[in-house]
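Rotation project, supervised by the postdoc (A.L.). Task for the rotation student: set up a whole-complex structure prediction and record inputs and outputs verbatim in this book. Inputs entered:
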Amino acid sequence: MSRQHLVDGDRIEAERYELEAAPAYRFAPSRREVFRMLGAGLLVLAVSGGAENAAEAQESGGGGGRRRGRNDAAPRDIGAWLHIGEDGTVTAHTGKTEVGQNVRTSLSQAVADELRVKVNSVRMVMADTDLVPYDAGTFGSRSTPAMAPQIRRAASAAREMLIDLAAATWGVDRAVCVAENGAIRRNDGSGTAPLAYPRLLQGKTLSRTIEDDAPRTPAAASSVPKVDGRAYVTGEHRYTSDLRRDGMLYGRVLRAPAYGAKLKSADLAPAQSLQGVVTVRDGDLVGVAAPTTRAADTALAAIKAEWETSAQQPSERDLFTRLRGAGSRGESLTGGAADERLKGTYTVAYIAHVPLEPRAAVAEWSGDRLTVWTGTQRPFGVRDELATAFGIPAARVRVIVPDTGSGYGGKHTGEAAVEAARLAKAAGKPVKLVWTREEEFAWAYFRPAGVIDVAAALGNDGTLAEWEFHNYNSGGSGLRSPYEIASRKEEFHRADSPLRQGSYRGLAATANHFARECHMDDLARAAGADPLAFRLKHLKDERLRAVLLAAAERFGWEKRRKAPGRGFGLAAGLEKGGYVANCAEVAVDAGTGQVIVRRVVAAFECGAVVNPVHLHNQVEGGTVMGLGGALFEAIHFEDGRLVNGRFSRYRVPRFRDMPAIETVLVDRRDLPSAGAGETPIVAIAPAIGNALLDATGVRLRALPLVSEGRMPAPV
Amino acid sequence: MPDTLRIKVNGKTRDIAGDGERSLLQVLREDLNLTGTKYGCGEASCGACTVLIDGEPTRSCVTPVGAVGGRAVTTIEGLAQGDKLHPVQEAFLEADALQCGYCTSGMILSVVGLLRKNPDPDEAAIAARLQGNVCRCGTYPRIVKAVQSAARAGRRAQK
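Outputs recorded:
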């Protein structure tokens, strides 16, 4: 892999940790197998659309990873299927996972809408590797643009098959048959009673494979409530960490005192002598399983372990130097007295996802077959991790993902699954392993830290003439400026990250938008232009213009009143098919420098709106999460240890951090729906940074902007 | 070996084997299979483990079960009256005040405790009382709406 990696703005950046080759074979289930599983009735298999295949290939490692293309003789992948049982039960099967983005609801909506049945009569079977077709994972905002259309196509094909069936039963033209309320009705005035779907399907096994991937008209927007919301407000929903199996033990794993520490010796005997305790040492893994968490904690503490830590351990202080590396492209930015370009170096810290449900898994062996329940965004990826770890065929591993206590890109890997399975193998009993919060901080992975060097020049007419942008380590998402620029150079440079890093909501688009949109404001100032007018002057993209204008209008940008200690800023961007603009108002205390974000407007457009309430919730949620990374979230580390790797020391947004948030949804019924889980997060940090500049005249170029909650003292 | 402890959970008396130093959270989840109460941080910083003890929101992860005594513990499973949801539960559903739902149990019980003390809280009072409950999905604005609508429902019921 070359150090320099240019990313096409239209493509999805390869998700970190998806950088493995795609599987060589994927055996689609036969119809017979599916019917055996679900019983007789009607089955529609939906082949993944071309767009999904392209995106997936990109995300799973890009060119050459896939063995089969659209023109190959081998069958294309089944992406989803839909089954209507003889009793009328509708189930749709997909590998997507529910992590709070309400995709279970939006996919149920798609089925119900096409099949003309009630939403609560649809059952989504999700993320169970024995019951659903292969899926690369739930990331990259692909569920709505790629999975929902497949499910819709399957459901509409099923509806048409039911109409055919009714027309044949009645011996009438199908044109007089209409699907309605779970039945086919005749509209020829014959007075014939409608035929409910179960009546039509009795004893039949009908199937069809749908390959058409023509875009469909989006469904009417509808604020269907979370389909199983009641189970959440009553505590009935069982997350992975809530599951129990007969005879189940609770696991704990011994962790190194620092990154890179090597286990020299471990005396397991004191733990082993405790009642009901099973101990494991297998290579680097040392763990225990016990009848209660308390007993497991006691057993773990009884293990006497010696560790060897290496002298060279990563520390935060030289992080950005290290990331920029020796062969910095930034030389061109810093060197040369004649260079009169406007320059800036921006940095972003490592941050943690902090999903409120930490990594968890329940593992159970039955002979040489393994079943693991775990909260992951990549059930099939984790299945393969398990198969590799235990040297067994993937077909003997079943991964089931209960709807999970969030992920934000942080749950792509299967550490807890592998550990629980190893403990269960030793114990001969099912084992549940729930990572502690401290483990989740230290041994999961972080959003990459990064350094971004920007240099830009204005022409004589105040127009942006030249743009050079180098991102070290963050990633390539959102790298390309949407603005019209005569001469541009935008590069992402890989680096040797001292900490384990991976995917995060929005990937590097947050870092790249932060640098770009702050720099755009600096350029506007240099040109003596209003930040909004300056952006619009360089923007042809109508969709981006529209969200900028929508945000500015709701915010009252033109009417904003300058006052001491008050500042206003805006920023905008596009990513993963969505367009976002934020306006922010901040207050800075003249004495203490304390910063308060008073008000935020978010305008968002992602094509046709599917579920307005849930979309509002995603946009607000992304905005709130973005506030944390913008203002105060940062992982601090010293000599290979986290300094603030616990909940009480790592600040996340709380109620009192909330500004007044207003969301404007721009609904484009004429455009296909894109995902919304990520893009709303990308522009909030620069909007606040620009507002702080407006308030104080000080440009902050590091994320988080105000880690102590106040402006840094002037140097 | 340790004695048996007796605690009152959701109106029922339960005998707990084991030592009194275990956290109420672990006892609820592992001994009583009441898993609606969640582990989030283990140091009373996130609020996911909140239960009511004699009506007062309490972090069960740092409460030794031996310290509960005869006081009444209410978990999320004990809030609804049969099929009838508590007004705060209804309000959360109506306001769509959850995403992944992992914080929801603790959040709802904290709100029940808040409204018991202050039936008509303004936004600042809500934020102050719920500061210890984290929703990482960022559903705060909706939770505030849910609290206000539950408060209105509660005041209507009083009249």
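Student's summary: The mean pLDDT of chain A is 90.
Supervisor addendum: Chain A touches chain B through 56 residues (CB under 8 Å).
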